[in-house]
Amino acid sequence: MSQKVFIISDTHFSHNNVITYENRPFKDTNEMDEYMIKKWNDVVSENDLVFHLGDVSISGAKKSEEVLKQLNGRKILILGNHDRLTKTKWRKLGFEPHGHYLYKDFLLTHIPVDEIPLKVAVEEGFLKGNIHGHTHSNNQHLPRELYKCCCVELIAYTPVLFDEFVSI
């Protein structure tokens, strides 16, 4: 069976305030976590690779472990501003932590990179763009020819195939 590659960001598992901030359609974190775990595992198999672009879980290590051990696939984590566990702990939770990652000529980051150097890199043919998280539904200020946001609010709370995501 061939490996599929997915992308997602800003799941914020167990983070109560994000439900309010982003108007997520869940009554509480238990409902949100269960829904996102199901959506994840409906599309991702144990064989697949998932790039998670940060802010995985906003809870302690024990609660994070309860939630994250349920997620299928090999997981590469681009550390976000809320991902405060040590790299060793992330590895124990099944995530390979990185500060950024280059995949298929896209720079994968949590926070969008500076526009001027990105524009130059794209114009010179070094990059195709920046795929990021962090901005949630507030990303209208970023030029779409350079930036692609994969926050869960924008992708139906479900990991999406990388190649389909970049072709949108």
Automatic annotation (TrEMBL):
Pfam families: Metallophos_2. Signal peptide: none annotated. InterPro entries: Calcineurin-like_PHP_lpxH, Metallo-depent_PP-like. Residues 4-137 form the Calcineurin-like phosphoesterase domain. Coiled coil: none annotated. SUPFAM superfamilies: Metallo-dependent phosphatases. It comes from the Bacteria. Belongs to the metallophosphoesterase superfamily. YfcE family. This is Calcineurin-like phosphoesterase domain-containing protein. It comes from Metabacillus litoralis.
